[in-house]
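Researcher: Next entry in the queue.
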Amino acid sequence: MNTLRLLRPIAAIWLFAAMQSFGPAAAIDPDLPYNSGSTGADGALTFREIVTPGRRTHQMVYDSARQQMVLFGGYSDSGRYQNDTWILDGANWRKLNPPTSPPARANHGMVYDSVRQEVVIFGGYRDGNLNDTWAWNGTTWTQRNTATTPNPRYSPGMVFDVARGQTIMFGGSGGADETWIWDGTTWNLRTPAARPAADSGAAMAYDAARQRVVLFHGNRQTWTWDGNNWANVTPSTVPTGRNYAGMAYDAARQEVILFGGSDQSDTWSWNGSAWTQRNPVNHPEIRRDGVGFAYHEGRQQIMLHGGYILSVDGNNSDSWFWNGTEWSFWSGATQTFDMTSRPSGIWNFTAGDVPPGVTVGFKKNAANTPVRWLFTQNLTVRGAITVDGQFAPANLPDGVTAKGGPAGFDGGDGAIRFNRSSSFAGTPGTGPGGGTAATQRRQDGGDGLHNQSGGYGNIFLQPLVGGSGGGGGGSTEDTDGGNGGGGGGAILLASSRDISITGQVRANGGNRQHSGVSWGGRGSGGSILIRADRVSGNGSFRAVGADEGNDNGRVRIEAYDRDFTGSTRPGIVFSLPVAGQDFAAVGTLTVTRIAGQNVAQPPTGSLVNPDVLFTQAGPIEVTITGQGIPNGTEIRLRVTTKDGVVTAGPEFLTGGSAQFTLTVPAGTGTVQAFADYRTSN
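Model: Structure for this entry, 681 residues:
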């Protein structure tokens, strides 16, 4: 049986435009002649600010008097203890610069004292246990010195008991099984008849509906405090044992919520007598502990921030909200820009800003267009924008490839083991310079090409097209071959004013994968095109092959004032802005008929469920139709199969279509169409 996976065809439209010549702009005129063409109809491009760097064992509470979430300290991926103060008083986290701050620390206790309207910190760890007390009044931190103070400790349980107007602290490393009370002036040790065993990292919350402090112990015990004594309650169902979990009282639903801890990702609720496991469809990444966790009174939802994630061995900076039923993502270091609703890939913004610590990735549209962001005002990139191709992991299902970035091309499949497929051959990477596939046992796949000899692309980045995918590696009798990486995508950032890059813009190819018997090929670097009155900054551009050993992408800056001092791979091509490109008139090619069958639009490009099925190897006819492409343009086809690449053409577009006859082998494959035409202004 012959099956063809139909990729969304790319019309490669080469537009060589004459560059306008202008004399030096007057220093007093901030608006130079370049016009991005943006209408501003899509408004400002903004992303939520985040807490940087990512961290764990920080603390977070809601300041009711000032109606803002307050976050302090924690331990970051850089191996540093933090002493920064952040607030969330709207849609964005904001770092404050108080005149006085506590020394850096993590694993401290922190509560909001609603009687005295201040945030209180005690203890924590930084090169040893701490036992200092600090208070926050919304403007600055003040150290409180008292005659009596608890022993130094970290990871105590600490909450504010609203009914009794005092802070309760239990245990912690170095704190044994002690219970201490802070009344706003001094610490007092209590000696209740019953108390939990010593514990570090126990979860605690104040249950306002029942006026009890609730403690969940690492040994799976649940204890409550009534102001005088601890009581061990014995519900029939309890969460698994854990430490460093998040726990807070949900005032809107009058229940205590427990999340994660000790590499857990489950959510539980406590109603005063029983624990119930909740089963949300969405939740923060699995196996997380050391989170910031507090009830947000303004939103009437519990907020979670950051924490340590075992699966990536790192700390996070994302924020989530719990509405009583589901978790919803709020903000994070990685934020996705959805292109699926915009077939052209063109957005008309006013101003734009990518905050520090934020990496913007993309969900591609069906046409696989490049990203085209046009601005009437300034664009500032302090974080990162990435159209990188996907890495080719070993666990991709049969027929699922590593995807190229927007306008980039997919990697090839590693060969299916011989005892399943009767072949050692992988499939080529897609795109005009797709990497060659292995055809022999244990053979590696070839790397994708872009602007190298035998590749494609030009210094004008017209057409704006991404990199090609790496080829699939060869198999053995009982082991699949390595998959090829996806090609880097293509992106245009254009502004009628200024573009400042102090962060990163990336269009790297996806790395190849080693299966134990062969490597897949690397994805090629893609294309980055910047156009503006002025381009400045000390950030970086990257459009390289997967391991940065192959500078086969393209980076181009077009501006009257080019004051960019950052680093680039490959080297930048500079020029004045190229005039005359009409972003709204993007030519497209569509494969409409193969082997006598009409092709449903848009095609899925799936090798598992191909768009076209036919049962006979040999000659087939393919019909291509074009929109926005002149008649007489040369059209070429490229078909990738497990036996290699079949090319056809050129044929000439006549009456808006072109006909091809080519011979294909049996098996699965992909078909792509390319056009090459030139115009000048």
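Model: Residues 1-29 have pLDDT under 50 and may be disordered.
Researcher: Noted, moving on.
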